[in-house]
Design brief:
This protein has helices at 6-26, 28-53, 58-89, 91-113, 117-129, 131-146, 151-160, 162-170, 178-217, 222-232, 238-254, 257-282, 284-287, 291-326, 331-337, 349-355. By secondary structure, it is mostly helical. Mean pLDDT is 78; it is low at 126-141.
């Protein structure tokens, strides 16, 4: 293809990219459950392999790990449901309080800025009209979630046929590159499960941290909103902002503005701890994707596949980075995706130990 002019080559590549994006959008209902199942299979793979090492048949191991994970999710869902039922029971009072607080806030804005209340109400109505887009987004997400009944089936089959898939890929690779392929497969089977496990650990730590903070500042339904804010953290970087945004709106609408300020302060503290201490030391050491690439990818995945895309894009970036680091021609892309070259600017437990003299610098 190098014999063609650069402009023509670039145009072909750009057209291919647009066709790929269009195909991903059109096949969303088909591919989202499959891609989610691949990530779930990676997460459960170490446990399935351990059970197999105890001479338990593969069918039984797959059923055990999938049912066990389903039971685990059921416990979390039941806990959230109980907490949410208390919240919905108080919803009529919350709605009245929200409307009263909204009017007070609008009155304060009018007094401080001189903008007429009619203009502000018009702006609020315009914003309210955009709710149809939000509704469409959640409707699309709900339609996607309805297909997740296939997720345990896909996961079972992916775990059951994992050796067959490895042999299938090997058939396309020359013998000279077999070692590279096996190295990629081994790294992926180690890195991705550890990253996903670390992500869940961070999520549970944030559930406790968020709930404790909300309780201490006096927020109603502290445990419920602590869990909700933590679950959004499954979306790196942007998830904490989305989760705390929901809590902030609730606080502004039902409680005092001073409490909303406390929520913002807690958000700043949690964001710092999560981005600079928890994630880099629990999950960042496995995937090691630089934040610029993560944020750009999250936005792109959200535009293509919505919320499910934002949930799964980072592990797939990790897989792509592993491939790039093992293929000579793609190593520059792997370097660009990674965090190498900025270690001295990062804040980690080790760097803090060095800074405060707890260990000697290297």
């Amino acid at each position: 293809m190098n014999q063609y002019p650069l402009l023509l080559r670039s145009t072909i590549r750009l057209a291919f990219a647009f066709l790929l994006i269009a195909a991903l959008i059109l096949t969303r209902q088909l591919l989202v459950p499959l891609f989610l199942s691949v990530m779930l299979a990676y997460l459960l793979y170490p446990y399935a392999e351990w059970l197999e090492s105890k001479n338990i048949p593969r069918i039984a191991t797959n059923l055990i790990v999938i049912l066990g994970f389903g039971f685990f999710l059921g416990i979390i869902g039941s806990a959230v449901g109980v907490l949410a039922s208390n919240f919905t029971g108080d919803f009529p009072q919350i709605r009245i309080q929200f409307e009263n607080n909204l009017q007070n806030i609008l009155g304060s804005i009018t007094g401080y800025t001189g903008i007429s209340e009619e203009s502000i109400n018009s702006l609020v109505r315009d914003i309210g009209e955009t709710g149809q887009y939000v509704t469409e987004f959640f409707t699309t997400t709900t339609n996607t979630l309805l297909t997740l009944g296939l997720l345990p089936v896909y996961t079972f089959l992916l775990l059951f046929y994992r050796d067959k898939f490895r042999e299938f890929v090997s058939m396309f690779i020359n013998d000279d590159h077999e070692d590279v392929l096996q190295n990629i497969i081994v790294q992926a089977s180690e890195v991705v499960p550890k990253y996903l496990k670390g992500l869940l650990i961070v999520c549970f730590l944030l559930m406790g941290l968020n709930s404790l903070g909300f309780y201490l500042i006096g927020l109603e339904y502290a445990l419920l909103f602590g869990i909700i804010a933590a679950l959004f953290n499954l979306i790196p970087y942007l998830g904490t902002i989305l989760g705390y945004g929901i809590v902030l709106l609730f606080t502004l609408g039902t409680q005092s503005p001073s409490l909303a300020v406390a929520v913002i302060i807690q958000f700043a503290i949690v964001q710092f701890l999560e981005n600079n201490i928890l994630t880099p030391n629990i999950t960042g050491s496995y995937v090691e994707i630089n934040p610029l690439v993560i944020i750009f990818s999250l936005i792109a995945a959200g535009m293509i596949w919505g919320l499910p895309g934002m949930l799964i894009i980072i592990p797939y970036l990790g897989l792509f980075k592993i491939v790039c680091e093992n293929v000579e021609s793609l190593k520059p892309i792997g370097f660009l995706l990674g965090t190498k070259g900025t270690e001295r600017h990062s804040i980690t437990i080790k760097s803090l130990q060095k800074r405060f003299g707890w260990i000697k610098g290297e």
